[in-house]
């Protein structure tokens, strides 16, 4: 049986923004993200950055949205805030796509699906923070949308290490391949 062409894959890097990353101890996360990013570029895979931010006055934030109502009160994550930018050590390139979302998951309140479909993307490799936030929400919806998924377990971080462990070891494997950055990089050259 002929397996057909290899699915077109994109690396999806989520919420790796300066003001968000300051809430997580690095523990080598940024270095692992840079390793995955370099491997994707060598393999000519599209890179899509997803960031969360809001317009002045937060017109997208309902008072019923507990998480983002807290953000609104702090005045953080505005489009104009330099803290909303992708971390400068991650080197966003002109050919990369940067998607702005207005909710937790990468698809909610963004044009991510339009971008992926236009590029013929069928497979997503996900990394970012937080594991229990953007990664979980994106895995769930992307699986329902029939994307092939890989989660880079050590390319994600969460404020609660036990939640990260449960998600990457027990929940995500039901809908995605879960790999380390190193294993994924090795798979690209094989």
Automatic annotation (TrEMBL):
Q: Which Pfam families match?
A: Isochorismatase
Q: Name one GO molecular function term.
A: hydrolase activity
Q: What InterPro entries would the database entry show?
A: Isochorismatase-like_dom, Isochorismatase-like_hydrls, Isochorismatase-like_sf
Entry superkingdom: Bacteria
- The segment(s) forming the Isochorismatase-like domain are 9-181
User: What UniProt keywords are attached to this protein's entry?
Assistant: Hydrolase
Q: What is the official name of this protein in its record?
A: Nicotinamidase-related amidase
Give the organism the record lists.
Answer: Frateuria terrea
């Amino acid at each position: 049986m002929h397996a057909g062409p290899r699915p077109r894959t994109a690396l999806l890097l989520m919420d790796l923004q300066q003001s968000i990353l300051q809430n997580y101890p690095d523990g080598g996360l940024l270095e692992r993200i840079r390793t995955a990013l370099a491997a994707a570029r060598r393999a000519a895979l599209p890179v899509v950055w997803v960031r969360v931010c809001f317009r002045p006055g937060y017109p997208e934030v309902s008072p019923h949205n507990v998480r983002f109502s807290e953000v609104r009160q702090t005045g953080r994550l505005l489009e104009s805030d330099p803290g909303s930018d992708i971390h400068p050590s991650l080197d966003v390139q002109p050919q990369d796509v940067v998607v702005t979302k207005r909710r937790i998951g990468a698809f909610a309140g963004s044009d991510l699906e339009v971008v992926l479909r236009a590029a013929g993307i069928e497979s997503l490799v996900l990394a970012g923070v937080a594991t229990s936030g953007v990664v979980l929400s994106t895995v769930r919806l992307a699986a329902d949308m029939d994307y092939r998924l890989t989660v880079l377990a050590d390319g994600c971080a969460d404020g609660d290490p036990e939640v990260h462990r449960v998600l990457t070891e027990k929940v995500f494997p039901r809908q995605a391949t879960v790999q380390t950055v190193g294993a994924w990089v090795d798979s690209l050259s094989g």
